Amino acid sequence: MRVTLKINRIEDEFHALRHNIDLYNSTSVEKLVRKLAEFLEVGTSVIRRALVPLLKYIEQDRQILQDAIQSHTDALFPLNSDRFDIILRHLFKRLKRINYKVKDVKQIRASVIVYLLNSNNIREVQYMAGHRFISSTERYLQDDLENLHEMIENLHPIN
């Protein structure tokens, strides 16, 4: 499967790395991994871990999404409308039916970032979240109420 990737650094929006790649060719993928690691100044293991969900999405989820909205395009994220906010609003309504506690899209983004912080390095999460400064990502460490409740339960003198 051939794709063209365009990768920007958070600090430098104007210089991008563009790379044509065959995702099923291990030599081509390894070359991309090394090139990206050098460009982004991170380890190759970070790049490899980031490629796994991308491959899963391209191989499985993208086709399901295309079938559901009846839009078979070459776009990475196919839309059945030119306006993304219409799709987002529809998705949000369905999500509220599943979990009525969901308030807004920012809450979902925050919960994803907190989840990522539990299993990833803070620098990796900074890149994934698109934060320019590490302090923006550090704020989400403080918002992790789940861990705070757990620490209180474990450290409370009555327990």
Question: How would you describe what is shown here?
Answer:
By secondary structure, the protein is mostly helical. 62% of the residues lie in helices and 9% in strands. The chain has a two-stranded antiparallel sheet. A hairpin with a 7-residue loop joins strand 1 (2-8) and strand 2 (16-22). Helix 1 crosses helix 2.
In short:
The chain has 159 residues and is mostly helical.
The fraction of residues assigned to DSSP E strands is 5-15%
What is the mean pLDDT? 79
* DSSP E strands, number: 2
Q: In terms of structural class, how would the helical and strand content be classed?
A: mainly alpha
User: How is the biggest beta sheet arranged?
Assistant: 2 strands, antiparallel
Number of helices: 7
Unreliable stretches, pLDDT < 50, 5 or more residues? none
Radius of gyration: 19 Å
Coarse shape: globular
Summarize the SSE layout with pairings.
Elements: E1 2-8, E2 16-22, H1 26-40, H2 44-69, H3 84-98, H4 105-119, H5 122-129, H6 134-142, H7 145-155
Antiparallel strand pairs: 1-2
Helix pairs in contact: 1-2, 5-6
Key terms:
159 residues, mainly alpha, two-stranded antiparallel ribbon, 7 helices, globular
